[in-house]
Amino acid sequence: MNSLVKDAKKAGERVGLISDTITIHGGKPLQGRIRVRGAKNLATKAMVAALLGSSTSTLRDVPNISDVKVVRDLLEVHGVIVTETAPGVLEMDPRNVLQAHFAEIDAHAGSSRIPILFCGPLLHKLGEAFIPDLGGCRIGNRPINFHLDALRAFGAVVDKSYEGIHLTAPDGLKGANIEFPYPSVGATEQVLLTAVLAKGTTELKNAAIEPEIMDLIAILQKMGAIISVEPNRVILIEGVEELGGYLHTALFDRNEAASWASAALATRGDIFVEGAHQIELMTFLNVFRKAGGAFDIEDDGIRFYHPGTPLKPVNVETDVHPGFMTDWQQPLIVALTQAEGRSVVHETVYENRLGFTKALVEMGADIVVHEHGLDGDYRRVPRRDLEQAAVIEGPTELRAADVHVPDLRGGFSYLIAALAAEGTSTVSNMGIISRGYEHIIDKLEQLGADFTFEAQDR
Ligand code: EPU
Question: What is the CATH number of the domain that holds 164?
Answer without folding.
Answer: 3.65.10.10
